[in-house]
Amino acid sequence: LGIIPARLASSRFPAKALSLIAGKPMVQHVYERALQSRYLSEVLIATDDDQIAEAVRGFGGKVRMTSTDHPTGTDRLAEVAWSEPAAIYVNIQGDEPLIDPAAIDAAVMSIREDEELAMGTLKKRIEDPADILNPNVVKVVTNLAGDAIYFSRCAIPYERASAGTMTYFKHVGLYVYRGDFLRRYPDLPIGPLEKAERLEQLRALENGFKIRVVETEYESLGVDTPEDLERVNRSEERRVGKECRSRW
């Protein structure tokens, strides 16, 4: 089950879920792309806002109303998981209108065959050196089996010799959960690492659960500001233009 958590209240960009991209609300773009995943049996939008719910029903999407008290998207998913049974749940960010369905499939496959894995997610090789020191770009390091060791806003690992040969990876915020784990998640203790970094995935690591991390070429393009929205609109205009030219 793919779940897209969507809120109207956003500190940096209020009402961004309903911002228009090529004439459609952003949350509709995410929903339609998620439907193209090969491994999702169903997709729904989880929200605490009536305006979003009305918009979703307007374009024929499936919506579930949830509590207004959830501190994270994962907590919102956990509420849905109690009423919508599934073996695997996928948390699809509602502010990534250009999400690649293949990235969703890769995340699902990361835990599908290993019952010991509670969660799965993605990482992307960092190409821009500025991203390594950018605290808004979350970095991840993994062990040799591909399981997460740590997520941080800092540059990890620290390359002491400064040889410039280390490869850094940024975390792509697409999460896959086993059903039993997701329903337990809100009751897990919040540890000092999650409090310090303000990264909800650290709750799983601090409580001893494995997170499998798979490398992807998908370049996440989230919308956090009006400037991001303009960039996505330009990207979508170029895509539509290419499709029109190919038909001719």
Q: What can you tell me about this protein's structure?
A:
With 248 residues, this protein is an alpha/beta fold. It is 34% helix and 21% strand. The strands form three sheets. Strands 5-4-1-6-10-7-11 form a seven-stranded mixed beta sheet, sandwiched between helices. A two-stranded antiparallel sheet has the order 2-3. A two-stranded antiparallel ribbon has the order 8-9.
Short recap of the structure:
By secondary structure, the chain is of the alpha/beta class.
Strand order of the largest sheet: 5-4-1-6-10-7-11
User: Which percent bin holds the helix content?
Assistant: 25-40%
Helix/sheet category: alpha/beta
Number of strands: 11
Q: What percent strand?
A: 15-25%
Overall spatial form: globular
Question: How does the major sheet shape up?
Answer: 7 strands, mixed
Low-confidence stretches: none
What do the pLDDT scores average to?
90
Radius of gyration, whole Å: 18 Å
Q: Count up the helices.
A: 9
Helix and strand sequence: EEEHEHEHEHEHEEEHHHEH
State the assembly state of the protein chains: single chain
Query: End-to-end span in angstroms?
Result: 38 Å
